[in-house]
Fold this sequence. Notes:
CATH topology: HIT family, subunit A
Number of strands: 5
Order of helices and strands: HEEEHHEEH
Number of helices: 4
Number of domains: 1
CATH superfamily: HIT-like
Distance between the termini: 31 Å
CATH architecture: 2-Layer Sandwich
Largest sheet: 5 strands, antiparallel
Mean pLDDT: 96
Strand content: 15-25%
Helix content: 25-40%
Amino acid sequence: MENLVEDCLFCKIIRGEVPSYTVFENDDVKAFLDISQVNPGHTLMIPKKHIVNMFDYTDEDAKRYLQYIPEIANAIKKAFPNVTGMNITTNNGKSANQVVMHSHIHFIPRFEGDGVQLVTRNNADQYDDTKYKEVAEKIKKEF
């Protein structure tokens, strides 16, 4: 448990000051049910180090904490055999709807006909070959 913050909800959950419905825990991460339960089994995984979001992960952090994603996803799928898919998402920053400023991964089990909709938009009609290449090059040069 590294660099935990006093007033962070998820740090409080890690310290046991706030109860949670834990489904998996080890020295690196804690996974527990999201109180919203978009669908049964909706789980959050958090690092036991206070990291605000993906923009703050080091390569070492990513290797240490994100390795558990497949294991948690598969446990949820096995627990609910009628799962037909799963949204594995993270919101990074307020404009991306991050509410708790401690990195967390959502595992939202999906069931055929569950009615859950994650809203996106298709802007393909605003792009041509030149614009796609321009955007791709802008990102490529940052690696």
